[in-house]
């Protein structure tokens, strides 16, 4: 490989949320890589820092061009400059849009188990979470479309948050599924926020399908949140984009993020995104190869050595969804494993009640850390089973 993903970097004492743990603990929870980002991005940040003046910033034309070119060439989605808005983050965008496009006590539909911060964006704004629980059968997930239509038909349902690809299950939704969601949402006048932040973290040879690219129907009802932060490990730089083709919706979103003051970039937000999309493609490809190898390594280890649990196979994200239904409930099991071995995983119940038989494990790390984590996972599960 041209790039180094094997070196273990000491992230303790760097104010890292992920690594603010005890000395003996190994954090594999929050969606934050343990790889240094693409050198091309680092160089651009150093170059900008070298200027030494850090005043207010505008969004340059190059930022729009970087998104437009990347999504057109890699994902087949055509965007225009005036359809893109800068935002400090995907979560900030979602929360602002929920506040602007819905009223208190209206329903916002989500599909659990799903990224836990969706709940915060809805509940903290005085709206109601309406759960279209995903169906889990034979180790795979699908959408319960009968339940979805029933809940979209509720006049109190005005917004749906789609996770595409889906976190934590690692599912890449196919074109037919996305089209069906779009048709149902259009039928019942429901707007779709499509969170596509994990879109570039896919198994080699696998691509994701932007919701807005599926049909005119999907395009006209969609607000798409995208960012380089997951793919290039840039979350701390607070940089994202919102793609809104419909002019009426776009005005609403523009007003939302400006009212909430999350529409202005910091000094490094735009240069980092531009460098990532324009110069970081080779790094991203190698990162996906490395993560895919980690996934295969972990799945094989679990299948051979931890017979009480199963890894749900995913094709996107760098997160593994572990079925521990034959062992215990997620909070108890995760807490025990952390106390016994130091391995810090996310309890599945944080992603909704339907996730209570699962744990989420971040595998975006050097292989040596992954092996350490898998050994701790085995020791923790074995000890838990013996205890019970």
- The domain count comes to 2
Let me know the CATH homologous superfamily of the largest domain. Type I PLP-dependent aspartate aminotransferase-like (Major domain)
Report low-confidence residues grouped into runs of 5 or more.
none
How many distinct beta strands? Answer: 15
Report the C-alpha radius of gyration, rounded: 21 Å
* Order of H and E elements: EHHEHEHEEEHEHEHEHEHHHEEHEEEH
Topology:
Layout: E1 26-27, H1 39-49, H2 61-75, E2 84-87, H3 90-101, E3 107-110, H4 117-123, E4 128-131, E5 135-137, E6 140-142, H5 145-152, E7 157-163, H6 175-187, E8 191-195, H7 216-220, E9 222-226, H8 229-232, E10 240-243, H9 247-259, H10 269-279, H11 281-305, E11 310-312, E12 319-323, H12 330-341, E13 343-344, E14 346-347, E15 358-362, H13 367-387
Helix pairs in contact: 1-10, 2-10, 3-4, 3-9, 11-13, 12-13
Description:
The protein has 388 residues and is an alpha/beta fold. It has 2 domains: 26-39 and 281-387, Alpha-Beta Complex (Aspartate Aminotransferase, domain 1); 53-279, Aspartate Aminotransferase, domain 2 (3-Layer(aba) Sandwich). Helices cover 40% and strands 15% of the residues. The protein contains 13 helices and 15 strands. The strands form 4 sheets. A 7-stranded mixed sheet has the order 2-10-9-8-7-3-4, sandwiched between helices. Strands 11-12-15-14 form a 4-stranded antiparallel sheet, with helices on one face. It has a two-stranded parallel ribbon with strand order 1-13. Helix 1 (39-49) runs antiparallel to helix 10 (269-279) and helix 12 packs across helix 13 (367-387). The radius of gyration is 21 Å and the shape is globular. The protein starts with 25 loop residues before the first strand and ends with a helix. The mean pLDDT is 98.
């Amino acid at each position: 490989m041209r790039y180094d993903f094997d070196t273990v970097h000491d992230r303790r004492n760097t104010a890292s949320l992920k690594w603010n743990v005890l000395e003996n603990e190994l954090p594999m929870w929050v969606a934050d890589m343990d790889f240094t980002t693409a050198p091309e991005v680092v160089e651009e940040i150093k170059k900008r820092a070298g200027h030494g003046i850090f005043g207010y910033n505008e969004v340059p034309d190059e930022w729009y061009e970087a998104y437009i070119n990347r999504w057109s060439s890699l994902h087949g989605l055509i965007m225009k400059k005036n359809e893109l808005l800068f935002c400090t983050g995907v979560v900030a965008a979602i929360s602002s849009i929920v506040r602007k496009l819905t009223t208190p006590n209206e329903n916002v539909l989500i599909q659990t188990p799903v990224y836990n911060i969706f709940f915060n964006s809805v509940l903290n704004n005085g709206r109601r979470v309406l759960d279209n629980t995903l169906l889990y059968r034979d180790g795979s997930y699908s959408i319960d479309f009968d339940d979805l239509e029933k809940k979209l038909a509720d006049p109190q349902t005005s917004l749906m948050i789609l996770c595409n690809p889906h976190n934590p299950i690692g599912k890449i939704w196919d074109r037919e599924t996305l089209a069906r969601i779009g048709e149902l949402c259009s039928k019942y006048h429901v707007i779709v926020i499509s969170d596509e932040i994990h879109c570039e973290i896919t198994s080699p040879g696998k691509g994701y399908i932007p919701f807005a690219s599926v049909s005119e129907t999907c395009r006209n009802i969609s607000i798409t949140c995208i960012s380089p932060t997951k793919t290039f490990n840039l979350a701390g730089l607070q940089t994202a984009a919102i793609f809104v083709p419909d002019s009426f919706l776009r005005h609403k979103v523009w007003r939302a993020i400006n009212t909430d003051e999350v529409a202005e970039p910091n000094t490094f937000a735009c240069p980092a995104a531009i460098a990532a999309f324009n110069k970081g493609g080779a790094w991203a490809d190698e990162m996906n190869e490395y993560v895919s190898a980690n996934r295969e390594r972990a799945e094989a280890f679990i299948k051979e050595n931890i017979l009480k649990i199963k890894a749900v196979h995913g094709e996107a994200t760098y997160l593994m969804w572990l079925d521990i239904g034959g062992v215990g409930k997620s909070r108890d099991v995760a807490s025990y494993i952390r106390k016994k071995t130091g391995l810090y995983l996310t309890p599945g119940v944080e992603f909704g009640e339907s996730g209570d038989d699962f744990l989420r494990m971040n595998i975006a790390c050097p292989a040596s850390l992954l092996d350490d984590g898998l050994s701790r996972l085995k020791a923790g599960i074995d000890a838990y089973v013996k205890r019970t």
